[in-house]
Amino acid sequence: MLTIASMVPNLGSTWNADNVIVFAPSNRTPLYRVSADGGSPEAITTLDASRGENSHRWPVFLPDGRHFMFTARSDIKENTAVYIGSLDSKSSTRLLTAQSNAVYAPPGYVLFAREGTLMAQKFNAGTLTLSGEAIPLASGVEHITPSAEAIFATSADGNVLAYQGAVGRNSLLTWFDREGRMLGIIGPEKDFTTDLQISPDGKQAVVVIPDPDSGNRDLWLLDLHAGGLTRLTTHPANDWQPAWDPDSAHVAFASDRNGTPGMYRKATGGTGDETAILTPPRGAPKDYSADGRFLLFLENRGAGASDLWVAPRSGATPYPFVVGPFAENQSAFSPDGQWVAYESNESGTGEVYVKSFGGAGKQQVSRGGGHSARWKRDGTEIFYLNLANQLMRVGVSGGDTLETTMPTALFAVCRRGDPNPLYEGRWYDLAPDGRFLMPCATAHDNPSITVTVGWASQLAGKFK
Question: Which pTM does this prediction carry?
Answer without folding.
Answer: 0.79
